[in-house]
Backbone:
């Protein structure tokens, strides 16, 4: 946000904090929170108590459903308040979906909604917190500014009362201490300055708790977030599978299929010439034999791109060594696994290393590269590093750019994310590139 406390040196941030727009918005949020929370608490407690008491009759059901709907409305207000005043966007919870049946079905869906009951819980438990936060924030704010500005207003006491200054304490009738001496006034001002400078950070801590409460109780549940994430990952996997099928179809059509069609035509011509010109027919058959070898190699390469036989037969160590042998630079391969992971994870690990080593060949301008694979806890870790140019080169390829390499790395990151994996790139300019991939360990 434009007038936040961020930026600058630590001392500058502390000095500017009491005047920053973010601080005033957060303070206003806490001041507004108490009256709103009082309203939420009163209506929620009254409504739930009334509905629970009326459950002996049918009237309790619509009353409770109405309270739940009302508290969901409170949640909308609070999410908007957090978004507008604290700059923290919180997603809407899942809507209430009722089966066909009208108002009765709608009430039943509300009563069974965990999200709606969390809104009621927020309306209840936020009230004591709002009272505490309001009192703490207002006390710090008022005492801080009042003491800081004490030199400007302490004259009120001798001018309009019989006291020389603000009375700090009194020990019976024997001794009374007033803040009237220059030293006492200076100490009061210094204390006020310390409180004023500390107030923004106290307010920041208090509003952090509010963010947690609103996110945890008024936002989507973890289960809803996980379902949404899985739906997104499923879409990514479907798109990836469709793209792979299109690639295989294109490779077959433009490569082996076209070559085999030409080969069939050549063999047909050779058959026609066999009786008329045996030498020319033999030459054409010899050329066709060469085309068959090339077509077979293309089919092997295509099969290797789908799922290499060496990976199935001998595991990651041998398969990655085979990939490394085809890289444009010497590659050291070290695989330390207690056993073979599940075939799906093993396949993703293989294609991850293949993609990264391909980027080393294309972009790194490196002299050497290394591949390390090991298990840590319940995770399979893969690290591919090179001593190339770094930046956007090396194993990272054109991650931030466009073109085939960039789109390939984007697809690789999506494929890892679809199985709860992580891709981390460390590629400082001129310092080589290290890419670490993390996959869940799933045993065979």
Residues:
């Amino acid at each position: 946000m434009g007038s936040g406390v961020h930026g600058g040196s630590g001392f500058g941030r502390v000095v500017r904090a009491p005047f920053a727009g973010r601080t005033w918005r957060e303070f206003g949020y806490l001041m507004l929170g108490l009256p709103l929370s009082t309203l939420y608490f009163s209506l929620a407690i009254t409504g739930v108590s009334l509905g629970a008491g009326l459950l002996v009759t049918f009237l309790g059901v619509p009353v409770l459903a109405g309270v739940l709907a009302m508290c969901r409305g409170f949640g909308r207000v609070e999410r908007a308040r957090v978004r507008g005043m604290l700059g923290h966007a919180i997603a809407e919870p899942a809507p209430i979906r009722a089966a066909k049946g009208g108002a009765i079905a709608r009430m039943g869906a509300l009563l069974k909604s965990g999200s709606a009951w969390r809104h009621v819980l927020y309306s209840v438990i936020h009230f004591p917190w709002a009272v505490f936060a309001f009192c703490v924030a207002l006390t710090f704010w008022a005492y801080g500014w009042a003491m800081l500005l004490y030199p400007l207003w302490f004259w009120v006491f001798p001018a309009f009362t019989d006291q020389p200054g603000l009375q700090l304490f009194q020990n019976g009738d024997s001794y009374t201490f007033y803040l009237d001496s220059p030293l006492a006034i200076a100490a009061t001002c210094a204390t006020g300055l310390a409180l004023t400078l500390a107030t923004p950070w106290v307010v920041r801590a208090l509003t952090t708790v509010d963010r947690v409460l609103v996110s945890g109780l008024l936002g989507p549940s973890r289960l809803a977030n996980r379902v949404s994430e899985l739906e997104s990952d499923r879409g990514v996997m479907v798109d990836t599978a469709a793209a792979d099928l299109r690639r295989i179809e294109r490779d077959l059509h433009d490569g082996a299929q076209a070559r085999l069609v030409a080969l069939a035509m050549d063999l047909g011509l050779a058959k026609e010439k066999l009786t008329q010109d045996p030498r020319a027919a033999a030459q054409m058959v010899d050329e066709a034999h060469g085309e068959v070898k090339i077509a077979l190699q293309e089919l092997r390469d295509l099969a290797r791109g789908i799922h290499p036989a060496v990976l199935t037969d001998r595991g990651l160590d041998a398969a990655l060594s085979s990939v490394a042998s085809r890289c444009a630079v010497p590659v050291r391969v070290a695989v330390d696994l207690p056993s073979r992971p599940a075939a799906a994870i093993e396949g993703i690990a293989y294609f991850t290393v293949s993609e990264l080593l391909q980027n080393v060949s294309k972009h790194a301008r490196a002299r050497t590269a290394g591949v390390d694979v090991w298990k840590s806890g319940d995770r399979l870790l893969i690290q591919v590093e090179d001593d190339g140019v770094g930046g956007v080169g090396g194993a990272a390829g054109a991650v931030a750019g466009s073109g085939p390499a960039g789109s390939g790395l984007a697809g690789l990151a999506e494929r890892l994310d679809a199985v709860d994996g992580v891709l981390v790139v460390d590629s400082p300019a001129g310092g080589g590139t290290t890419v670490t991939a993390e996959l869940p360990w799933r045993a065979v």
